[in-house]
Specification:
The complex is a heterodimer of chains A (about 280) and B (about 55). With about 280 residues, chain A is mostly helical. Helix content of chain A is about 65%, strand content about 0%. Helices cover about 70% and strands about 0% of the residues of chain B. The chains are: A mainly alpha (about 280), B mainly alpha (about 55).
Chain lengths: ~280, ~55
């Protein structure tokens, strides 16, 4: 592949930043995005904890504990989004015409955030389930498939750490990401396909009837979704760039080691080779 | 806790706060901690790679 042959680093050995590490946003735009994200998170906390009324109209009414859903539902949305972005970026990497390491970095960054948001979905759901269902966990279809999703993408992140050339790593990661993504629609439709303890969609049910009637509850949920999406976008852009820079640093170190070895071969007196271990026969 | 649910107003703050508080603190802590970790590593990587801050896409 041309990128690995020439080096993922734009100019290997020169100490410059890799081409894939160019900024997605300018420094100013990054700061504006960070400020907007923090403001949205603050608004979300106020809306979710104080502005939205207590649930007294539900069947049965959940009182104050339903406020966890303002975290749980947006986290689930962002987890879907993150794994969807990972799948799309993986497809773009697998297509030879669009192949580029930036897609691999996007896939890796997005999957990492997807795992974090899925962990939040599981924990927040568990915290809500204890007072409402009377159990921290149930082997319900939605819960189980979500746990499987979490472990599938943990495996994907572990696979990304296994050695090889950047192209080898990216290829196998892209294939693994597409396999793992099969579970996303299963998670989503699990409440439709099977009889589950987990309720139907939180905003719309299968008949597309709106569940939540209170305007302040809806506003808190929408602000939560927007804030979570902004958090995802900000962190994904930063993580993607970090992955590209780290790859550039690895390549620079490798290039320096190769150059040192070549220099030592050309002029053995110029460098003192590292002492070789003494082989003393059988050591077993 | 189901007896609390069955009451007219649902679960009151007195019973709900440990769950709600833990959930919100965990979300802020996990995402905030991850954000700080990424930004710190990014700044360090930018310092160690000259020209890392030049290109803008």
């Amino acid at each position: 592949m041309s990128m690995t042959a020439q080096g993922a680093n734009g100019a290997p050995g020169t100490g410059t930043a890799p081409a894939g590490a160019r900024r997605v946003l300018s420094r100013t735009a990054s700061r504006v995005l960070a400020a907007v994200t923090l403001a949205a998170v603050a608004l979300r906390l106020v809306m979710g904890l104080f502005v939205a009324p207590s649930d007294s109209a539900g069947d049965p009414p959940q009182g104050q504990v339903y406020r966890l859903l303002f975290l749980h539902v947006p986290s689930a949305w962002v987890a879907y989004l993150a794994f969807g972005v990972t799948a799309m970026a993986s497809i773009l990497y697998l297509i030879p015409r669009t192949r580029g390491l930036q897609w691999d970095h996007l896939a890796g960054a997005s999957a990492e955030l997807g795992v974090i948001f899925t962990a939040l979905v599981l924990v927040e759901g568990s915290l809500w389930g204890k007072p409402v269902w009377g159990a921290w966990w149930a082997w319900d279809a939605r819960l189980t498939t979500t746990a499987v999703l979490f472990f599938l993408y943990l495996g994907y992140l572990a696979l990304r750490r296994i050695g090889g050339s950047p192209h080898q790593r990216s290829m196998r990661s892209a294939i693994a990401a597409l396999i793992a993504f099969i579970d996303v629609p299963i998670v989503h439709f699990s409440v439709t396909w099977w009889t589950t303890l987990h309720q139907d969609g939180s905003i719309f049910n299968q008949k597309m009837q709106v569940h939540i009637q209170d305007a302040r509850m809806n506003a808190a949920l929408i602000v939560g979704v927007v804030a979570s999406t902004l958090v995802y976008a900000s962190l994904c852009i930063a993580r993607m760039r970090l992955l590209a820079l780290e790859e550039g640093m690895e390549e620079r170190e490798l290039q320096a080691a190769i150059e040192e070895r070549l220099a030592a071969r050309r002029d053995p007196s110029a460098s003192s080779p590292a002492p070789q271990p003494v082989v003393t026969g059988s050591t077993a | 806790m189901s007896h609390v649910i069955a009451s007219s107003g649902g679960i009151a703050w007195a019973q709900a706060w440990p769950y709600v508080g833990t959930g919100y603190a965990l979300a802020v802590g996990l995402l905030g901690g991850y954000g700080v970790w990424v930004v710190r590593k990014l700044r360090r990587a930018e310092r160690s790679l000259p020209g890392a801050d030049e290109g803008q896409l």
